[in-house]
Batch of 3 targets.
Target 1
Amino acid sequence: MPSIHKTQQWQNLELHWQTLAATNLRELFTGDSHRFVRMQLSAAGIFLDYSKNLLNEDTLPLLLDLAQVADVQGWIKRMYAGEAINITENRAVLHVALRNRSPRQFLVNGNDVMPQVRSVLERMEKFTKQVRSGAWYGYSGKAITDVVNIGIGGSNLGPLMVTRALGHYHDGPQVHFVSNVDGTHLVETLQGLNPATTLFIIASKTFTTQETLTNAITARNWLLAACGDPAAIAQHFVAISTATAEVKRFGINPANMFEFWDWVGGRYSLWSAIGLPIAVAIGMPRFYELLDGAYAMDNHFETAALAENLPVVMALISIWYVNFAKFATQAVLPYDQYLRYLPAYLQQLDMESNGKRVTKNGDAVGYLTGPVVWGSAGTDGQHAFYQLIHQGTQTIPCDFIIPIHSHNPASDHHLKLLANCLAQTEALMLGKTLEESKAELLAQGRSANEVEMLAPHRTFPGNRPTNTLLVEKFTPFTLGALLALYEHKVFVQGVIWNVNSFDQWGVELGKQLAGVILPELKTGTPQLHHDASTLGLIERIIKHRA
Amino acid sequence: MPSIHKTQQWQNLELHWQTLAATNLRELFTGDSHRFVRMQLSAAGIFLDYSKNLLNEDTLPLLLDLAQVADVQGWIKRMYAGEAINITENRAVLHVALRNRSPRQFLVNGNDVMPQVRSVLERMEKFTKQVRSGAWYGYSGKAITDVVNIGIGGSNLGPLMVTRALGHYHDGPQVHFVSNVDGTHLVETLQGLNPATTLFIIASKTFTTQETLTNAITARNWLLAACGDPAAIAQHFVAISTATAEVKRFGINPANMFEFWDWVGGRYSLWSAIGLPIAVAIGMPRFYELLDGAYAMDNHFETAALAENLPVVMALISIWYVNFAKFATQAVLPYDQYLRYLPAYLQQLDMESNGKRVTKNGDAVGYLTGPVVWGSAGTDGQHAFYQLIHQGTQTIPCDFIIPIHSHNPASDHHLKLLANCLAQTEALMLGKTLEESKAELLAQGRSANEVEMLAPHRTFPGNRPTNTLLVEKFTPFTLGALLALYEHKVFVQGVIWNVNSFDQWGVELGKQLAGVILPELKTGTPQLHHDASTLGLIERIIKHRA
């Protein structure tokens, strides 16, 4: 197959962009009264309105042609079949197996992984029941009041985001998350915690991740400083890992090691044992509902025609903006305070998966890949960076996400939240013309001079594209569906870009070089091979720490 | 004056970019052994290494020519002179007066504002002493244990960020921040708080901001549900506002209203009474140190030659990347867990100030303005989005910010943090060539086939530009200096782009349209004038809420 950007389908889209660039959303809506009805999809409790995008009736068909030529359907099949589609690590990619709630088998090298998956879920259930009921106790015989998850990257952001997103359902012990190697993170977290009632979950596949082990050892010292007895470690530490020997050496009882597998990528792992802190917080029945929601979306993704496939359509719209409109970033704007960590989570999911510059074959891509994904919870963003989205010189496609019902329906807060969310998508699309702006100022009684001066500043170009995602309420089920939706969206984009969305070699070089610099800082002896800047900084730090 | 992009200076830079695009950082370092020494600056306790940027010895002089033709020095003078440089609102811009720690006068319309500034600082001092000492008490006679700041945008992000950034110095009552109109934000915050010992700070200049007032009223109901006596409101609510009548009507004693002025923009206001929650947390002496640090940077900014002026040089490097290299985003990466809100704060500061599309004269700008500013605390980002920064198809200039000393020097955590920070800047600059990657894989004993297949994926293009900012330790002083540095940087960029960095008309349209939609949701009666998407969403929400 030729590189995707050499295909006729790609070139059709490049040409087609010229048409769209010459029109605008106001016109598109005026010209088509059925637009809203035609450009919407629902699956697994999620409703998507994608009509406020820079698409006409020809765009999606052309994008679907591209999906066809990139063999999106074939790659979905390959993923489900357990093929080693993570080619640089020679691994299958089967996070869908983690939430498979049917008798179906998932095969890796001919072996069904489902018995292992179910066995770990059962062990998680037993463990969380003990912790949540008070049957698990610390060295002084007291129940656990606080759980501290120590992990980084996928072993942190996923469980952190979901635990907070389901804060309304949180009826277990307090759950804290420590990730940064900065001593401040752990020290500030442990302040006010009682070693006798604190349980640590150490999440590291290899049990050698520098940040995680550094924090775990300091946490162990904190426990031992309080109780003195190394036997207590087994009561206060459990592991999510595959490295039995390392885990045992740390002092953890291997019976309290929860396994996951090399076919689970870090950023796709919250559905596995990595989700243990979630299950401690909300209980296993609700963790299963989270899996149920993801499973519902998985089924939709696997079976729906591409044109009605929520993750596929969202992926194609993203591709449209990255490669043809050349928009560099995309924003995620959840109108739900519980979902405040969602933008950071999706930032990792998307940018670590598709921030790649070579194809699966190792050739340089000849086109842009993953955009910068960013955002924050609304309405806060409205009073911060929305200025640039409305009136800046870049176009930033936005996903607005909002539940119809709030878990905390105090007074009219939620109606205001809904009104703001809808108004933003309306404002971004419509804008306000110079003439409208002038008329408004005149109506306010401003002088002709003032009107002339102010109107350009109060004009909005509009034509800013948005998706709106509605759910009834953010339950474990709908959250699971939403996350699976974005996982599959990112996968489809990676398929079209022909990159491996499941490795992350880009994190290795920094680790390697940090391993060189650390002993230099420790001994106070810089090596001269560094560039002048790095050397100069090392010397300055050594001098100032002396 | 012609538009800035029509000047010779701008065109020189466009031409000059071709030279830089044809070289790379490795070469630039090899070719110039004095690069690190020449490309560094210090002021007010902040050390900047800017040598790892895509600059040669001609670049900064050419950028300084641009600063000259844009009259940066003249605009600095105009700001300090209290001229109404916020032209669309006809206001002076004098956040520098808020931290003026000298006998100097700052004039607005011929009147020195310093007596007012000092008077409010004195009132803040008296108030915070009372709250912190327990002399201020609630309706049942108990001291205040928790302070809840209710504000949004500049009335939230600044105080929130600084309060957390100075967490090490936090010895006053607990301080919470509620901003989002989402009822969840307030409800979850109040859970576990005691009305008898909770004090609310309501921060809203006009006392009409929808989010803030909605939250304030729900908070007042919460208090009244507990104590029943409206007279208690005055003991549990204070205001940061200028709207005496509204404040009084709410039930707040006007003696407990802290004023600020129209020459203080929301995103530049943490130095004013808006900083009250900071002062409650750390005490006024340390709040003064924060002002001292900003004042030291202000003096540097006002007096240093442009070529040695930290905010000016950082601004010019940003301009270089936005307008000549066409990099769409810039990342802020604080290696300090206390500074975890800094990226969100700078995102607002930068994007709300310079996310503009018309010049001061109201003409469309013919060039790009404010970039998307984003980031997170390191080392977490390393395990999330750094993949794209290292190996993606976009170049993202990054500011690395790190203290030489930690407030929590547990074990070797901080040396590891430092090693990681330096290693990232080294890795981003150097990259790893295909040949280096192959040699490494061969040395690991990989087969020739594996080497061929894997090496391209493990290659790093390098040549990714970074700034490194070092401080001794993040004290109130150095934090104040850092924030003033970025404020002035943003200002200089705005001067060169010839935009008004001090208004935010872009937030108005959404507010206006939300005001239309809210009654439709409340009455269940949508108006038909909306576009089909907005109307369809409103109808769907009404139906599902019925």
Target 2
Amino acid sequence: MIAASIGGVGESVGYDEVVSTNEAINTDRIRNEAFRSKVVSADEAAALIHDGASIGFSGFVGAGYPKAIPDSLAKHAAAAHERGEHFQVNVYTGASTDHALDGILAESEAIAFRTPFSTDGSLRKQINNGSVRYIDTHLSHLAQQVEEGFFDHLDFAVIEVSGIDEDGHLIPSTSLGNNKTWLEQADKVILEVNEWQPEQLNGIHDVYYSVDVPPHRKPIPLVGATDRIGVPYLEVDLDKVVAVVETGGGDRNTKFTPLDEVSKAIGDNVVKFFKQEEEAGRLPKGKLLPLQSGIGNVANAVLAGLETGGYKGLECFSEVIQDGMLGLIKSGTVEVASATALSLSPDVIDEFRENIDFYNKHIILRPQEISNNPELIRRIGVVAMNGMLEADIYGNVNSTHVMGTKMMNGIGGSGDFARNGYISIFLSPSVAKNGDISAIVPFVSHVDHTEHDTQVIVTEYGFADLRGKTPRERAQALIAIAHPSYRAQLQDYFDRANAQPNAGQTPHILPEALSWHQRFLDTGSMLQGEAE
Amino acid sequence: MIAASIGGVGESVGYDEVVSTNEAINTDRIRNEAFRSKVVSADEAAALIHDGASIGFSGFVGAGYPKAIPDSLAKHAAAAHERGEHFQVNVYTGASTDHALDGILAESEAIAFRTPFSTDGSLRKQINNGSVRYIDTHLSHLAQQVEEGFFDHLDFAVIEVSGIDEDGHLIPSTSLGNNKTWLEQADKVILEVNEWQPEQLNGIHDVYYSVDVPPHRKPIPLVGATDRIGVPYLEVDLDKVVAVVETGGGDRNTKFTPLDEVSKAIGDNVVKFFKQEEEAGRLPKGKLLPLQSGIGNVANAVLAGLETGGYKGLECFSEVIQDGMLGLIKSGTVEVASATALSLSPDVIDEFRENIDFYNKHIILRPQEISNNPELIRRIGVVAMNGMLEADIYGNVNSTHVMGTKMMNGIGGSGDFARNGYISIFLSPSVAKNGDISAIVPFVSHVDHTEHDTQVIVTEYGFADLRGKTPRERAQALIAIAHPSYRAQLQDYFDRANAQPNAGQTPHILPEALSWHQRFLDTGSMLQGEAE
């Protein structure tokens, strides 16, 4: 079954392989002789990658990205550029990586194309000036669409693992992301074996190998967040492995800032919503349904709210396990957290490593085609909680484009969860930029989640439950949770739109609809009469 | 299993039941004595329905809606209004029905609330002036969300069936829609037994009874469009049945206009796209993948294109079987068509009825929670083809709101298929209103399908394959298939947006973004310099 879906086996003989000269190979981490024979330096491995190559890298939200090849590749690119040669590659990942991958390659002008998600500042500039071709893709779509041939064929997979066992199975690192698919689809494979990653990661992963593409798909047999349906390792065709590189660097995730009052209030409002749902019998009492929580401080605040809300034994079915989750597992608030990445900041990494045997019992890492799978998200009834840039008064949500044009990061997995979840919740502080940007606007400048897919919107001022509400009723619910300094302005827009003859199902004044964003660009504030 | 999910059994005793006085009951159609004892007139049955009632009606795109109760209910409402009394009901259906349901009730001002989809002109006016509360809902979402308590509790289910067998099983009519869920969820049930519907419909349906709601869901065992996974009948709790009404009227679907050149060209362009995909190995040669095709003349033209394109033995996994499908089944182009409704116009209804035993072997009707199910659509790799009102140059699609404010019909199932399909295709003539409205605009006035979910856009001028294209590249591909009279205007907008400093990932000139729609409202045309 697996062999059939690994492509290009017959063509893999005769690659230029770099013969290892390394005498001190870590035989605990590379237990298979055939793989040991392929150990080379990062520079030697990176030199195998040609201009124009399409590369599937490991890495998901700062976890499990390769630590050495990107740096060597950036140096190769810079050297080529100094010689006046063209050298750029196409970068496919799980999601965001780290400055050490996206940033370093971008700064060497070594990226021609990037998908599906990135948060790096240097790369963002190149995306927004059009010098890097960027496609913002649902995280659940990329693996299948590469396999289906909707993107370029992958020349290389560059994958961090924590070890290689006697049988040649790869013990994954802190993220799985699209690694399974990259290993299958790429012509050549470069492995980074990172001895910094704890050996006890062995067993935490669950890699399901029977996803396939239509018309050969079968039901995925997962019926709960706690289910294990696969194997704890990745497979790779040895003939495709052109280099193995030993590394030792740690994941370098961003530190979290301490929870501020606004984030805490948002977390509390989410819990208030949950209590309402439990009272109404729409969520199982005290148990809820499997939770998906996005990334960052607000998401961490929501998790903290669950603990103070007195919950025990919850299940999470999410993309990323971040700092806040460890405390919740320790306290028993969360029984099992399923995700595709374990993305811990330096603040808690020691806590995890010291108690890894405990945490391993409560954490499952899956490929993102499983963690973000619409079949599973709909089946198990995930409660989706994601951040947003802005929502309009009718509940359309912008997650990606600042003022409608500038890419912030990308849609990530928010659409995977919002579209097929049991309840989809979007969260944001009511204002940004010291109050100059309102998170509730008349008309969003870009739509990533339509009114059909947004059910609850939460700010520090409360939650707007949009279910069962018409557009006009949604407007009133959303204006009520806008920042007080914007409520009159929003109400004025809505009232005038609604008072027009033939106002329609969704009243708007088209010439004014995007004027808040233009006002911000012109004056530095969305507030009327401010700085004008 | 079924009994457990039918609610309110213990509370169903003691309803006011109307005792039948009808002496000439059709015992061929109502074979169960207990049901025969509940036969009453439509007026008597409608009189059971109270002001403010929430009613789940059968009916999906002009097929299988109740023929008698809506008319009687409208008369009751009109009489109540004449007496100065309030009388309005909340109308839940499968999708659109017919003037005989939505239109008649709307004209009697008897509808307070409507979901999930409607095409009736009289009702549209009331939706757009705000006098009817309308919630535009994904068709795959409504059944589960009613069951989950996100909408009002249903007081009544009013369901057309073609018969009732000896065991009290209901032989469904020409659509299944949400009937299974309405029968389970409603407190009281009124059945219309329509003897106009052919008896041979018995066996065409496949009703799957194990969908459940989270956290109790299991995989749905369907792996191909031809699979049957349920039973051919609907179940109902006899104690909840408060009336059975005999009717005889036919479904009254709109006649199709003959295929025009524009529709034919769109159909041909879809086939050209399929041939490209087959050549590239992205669709199985000559077989494609299960097709979903929307509603109306363009959809019919696409089906006709498949026949002239020489395909044989195709499978369809769709919502609605319309006129064009019968010819394709007859010619062998389509082997099996799976849908939730058999919505035939008077032109072909005789053909179907005369050859029903043949067609029954090639048609499967399922509940819409199965026909539109994201799990199944992703699994079997449905190729989704849906109409649209407009797309913008970056591939965002508006399916619902004319000029951003007026509800046309609703999103229907387009999002169910586009979001989870193998390939999502949107179709439209390049212009409407004799050229005064362009289907390609700088910025859509409402978004129902985001850039992340639209992969191919087709007009009579060609197909724009958006896969693997950045926003800037998408703009060029889409301008190329716009109507020639709008191409220069679109190119000018894009060029100026793109030339701005800090143009971003998705260049726009915000004050101009919605100006095409405002120009149409002001001058009657989106063309610059026309009628201005």
Target 3
Amino acid sequence: MKQILPQIQNSIGSINYQWAFGLIHYFALQGVTQAVISPGSRSTPLALACEKHSDIETWIQIDERSAGFFALGLAQRKQQPVILICTSGSAVTNWFPAVVEANHSYTPLLLLSADRPAELQNCGANQTIDQSFIFGSHVREFITVEHADETLLKSNYLKRITTQAFSKTLNQKPGPVHLNIPFREPLLPRRFTADQLNHFINRLSQQVTESSTPIIQSQISKASISETRRDLLVETLDSGNGLIICGRLTHYEHQGFHKLLIALAEKLKCPVLIDPLSNLRLLSSSNSHFIYNYDHFLKNHHGDNKLTPEWIIRFGQFPTSKKLLQYLEQLDSHTILVSSYGDCLDPIHKANTILNTTPDRLCQQLLEASIKPNSKQWLKSWQNSEQNSETKIHKALDVCHDLFEGHIIHKLLGIIPDNSLLFSGNSMAIRDFDTFITRASAHDKNLSLYCNRGTSGIDGNLSTFFGLLANQPQTTKNYGVAVLGDLSFYHDMNGLLIAKQLNTLGYNASIIIINNNGGGIFNYLPQNQLDDFDKLWKTEINLNFKHSAQLYGLDYHRIEHHDDLESQLSKAISGSGIQIIEVIIDQKTSVECHTIL
Amino acid sequence: MKQILPQIQNSIGSINYQWAFGLIHYFALQGVTQAVISPGSRSTPLALACEKHSDIETWIQIDERSAGFFALGLAQRKQQPVILICTSGSAVTNWFPAVVEANHSYTPLLLLSADRPAELQNCGANQTIDQSFIFGSHVREFITVEHADETLLKSNYLKRITTQAFSKTLNQKPGPVHLNIPFREPLLPRRFTADQLNHFINRLSQQVTESSTPIIQSQISKASISETRRDLLVETLDSGNGLIICGRLTHYEHQGFHKLLIALAEKLKCPVLIDPLSNLRLLSSSNSHFIYNYDHFLKNHHGDNKLTPEWIIRFGQFPTSKKLLQYLEQLDSHTILVSSYGDCLDPIHKANTILNTTPDRLCQQLLEASIKPNSKQWLKSWQNSEQNSETKIHKALDVCHDLFEGHIIHKLLGIIPDNSLLFSGNSMAIRDFDTFITRASAHDKNLSLYCNRGTSGIDGNLSTFFGLLANQPQTTKNYGVAVLGDLSFYHDMNGLLIAKQLNTLGYNASIIIINNNGGGIFNYLPQNQLDDFDKLWKTEINLNFKHSAQLYGLDYHRIEHHDDLESQLSKAISGSGIQIIEVIIDQKTSVECHTIL
């Protein structure tokens, strides 16, 4: 630290600053470029250090829960750690929903919570709670940062802990890391005039950022499997017809994988079931190996031999489709999980082998090996089912005259600009994307579809979308669309405060609320037979979201009829700024149309 | 369980129900009467068991964060455990802000989280996270409930764990207890028609509730101090002039304490500094021993001997006033903490003695003892300062022509009906209550003032208020008023979904938003000198809360001028249903008026 931090003054106030500026600067040297700050007093040194650092972009969100999800979106879009800052006390606990989602979606977050010093712990001091290990098993590491201290400033302590935290947040298994950072008062150097104070802060910031060289962090390691394991794998693949299933991938896993997977599928003559969150469906609709409509045709699969594989290779997260889950549950195929981060994502307990390698590395290794392809008939059977379902789904879209979810997704995929960001809510929305991103509606627009599928919560959806949007590469005609239900919209309405900022900054996006007035998904569960269904599950909230749009000064559109859908959707998407589009869906119609499928 | 649970069917679906109904029924037998439910699928048996139980009143709130705080309010008003129910996954983590507040405000909550069964843990199953010990040190106990099981149903297992949980949530040190409850599918008995299913649920509910006798739970024990300790204490009190300070008390501590404290103060001729959250200020303005305005006159105290006590007895939480804290910090008096729940609430490290007894018990013991009273001059000095400040504060209220917080509190206390509930936000609101509940403005209306002062967060304020309101005793002209800043209002706007329900149910209340457009409190901190003050601390949100009121169909009033304050406030408070009153405050004016004091 000696080289980079000047000895301006030795009061607690100034050491707090050297401490916070050092900490943030080391994170910047590792490659952190963004911080999301929720205002507070105890976190003053940290907030200022981010704001003043020339390599760090700061965002403000008052509600820490929404802030957490906004940071999650930012981090997911680039697979790059994002800093979160909040003050001490209950503020920290508001991050928890985003932290568990980050844990399960492998999203790197650096949670920097300010805290009161040791002498104020456990004695009834204001805004003071036990923040140690507060996120339990849901962070990769918890680091108790020492109190700001001159001796430690002169050591390489800050460099060591930031390197450790950054490494834990990104390497091996990306995820959140929590640093709890106590500060003693005064939080600002005392006895300075305003001018002196601002001068001190600016000088410190300048001196810190001008100094020292970046720290090169290794990225996630791309381990190959051993030759022995590869030979055993080839033996399995040679044993009969098989299937590749590709679930949700992280941004990091997705890079470079697409072409290798196509090459492998062609080499093996292998059907590849592609989950909507694999982000392969919206790229490759001309590829005859990719199977889109399995959620539709597998519901009628009752041990059909024509669709029974000898082996299965699974990439990414367990797929969204419940029909696929039920199909897989009754199989006895040799199942190989490709696990980039070492987890066994296998809720049906079918894995025979877990390979700790990345999807692209495994494809490369298998492309180099000599493997017997599947029979032509095998691939053909899948393609026939696929085509059959494709026809039926599109017929259902035509037959249903009243507005339902299928129409929205179908039309949206036609209208949405190329290279757009697409975000899906959980509950019904992602299931409808699964069903209605057919081959014909896919359009190959290179869309990126995201969804909080780590824990599949209805919380934080809007904020996650805005985070993804804010980090969307700024190419021409770039656009973002979120599609989510009324309960998910309601749950994170506070996230719209950032929408207001994004609006001012010139971002363009649409939020489509599929308003079926409550928990429409429960209509598909046995609970719908109960006398208490309406109160306990359907939970109509009867809100007109026009008022939410007005609260934040956002444009609002309301669509109630099928005939208006395409024109209204086009109009909204061609508008500038953030558009709120509320589409009114009748639950009964929706259930009927889904049943026709 | 044998006696109360019928052997209807032995499938998993029906055992889940016998399990959930048994669990909830045992809680009802202990005395639980309320449950707050956030909809979900995995929690189906628990939600139904509450809904069907004749002794349990259920409330629905979709956002689990707001649900947590609503339950907190319900529980605080009666110091009685309230059940919370949510589904598995990130839903649970949304309770965390309310859980830490419950921990630090000694509020009994029974957190019943549904979970997926063991076979779906740690393998990438949907909506499945590690829920074990998820609230860490912030609950009194974490109980892993076993999977619903026939053998256990026949044992007294459910009786034992519910008794244990109830006891931990209320006895010794009230607070939250977390029970994590896994359920296997099917969540409802299969192969039943809708009629059969509803019949089964109704029959089970009836059979469960008709059976067995209540379990008598001991309440918090009222331990006395030993005679030796009492004699030592009397010796200290005899040694010179002393002071009693009374901070925030729990509902339980408050009962019966008021009269005993007055008797003790009179016996000892002792000034009693009463925090606004002691709930003594709004009861006893004619009592000459009670001191209201210490926050005002202690700011000028620089070691003044006339106000330097030999001893201090402190009841309840550490007081709100920062001026009082600074005064106490520089004293060297013998300090006695009265700790009902065993905690040492002493952030300034001044306690010489901690007495593990309740405020009322200690008063009784001291009233029975022979103790030398303080000097007349001692009490007089405090009374003089009190009178002096009283004059100055009211002069300031007159001198400030432009609308500021002091006017709102002063007028409100005049208008608000007797026996009303009063809720204060944190940040500026509670400090303004501290300053402006003077002797003259107190009016002795038997108001109950509440504030989330456990962790002093800006989160969950509206929901806490609605919970308190829903459990307000239904006497004539009963009323509730919340006063909070715009950031606190914004943080928990989702809580207004319950307001909509309360509106329908005929509750009357007003929410006064003191809108100074952002973090007004930071104007009083040194951060206001920084160039980045507006972005990082002031954080103007520029929201017109008229739209929030419209979203939930609530009446809205906007007050911008001092001249309109009294008439508009009267008009709103005489309206029926939930009224949103937005009072626009200029930050500069506000700082000036506070400075005149």
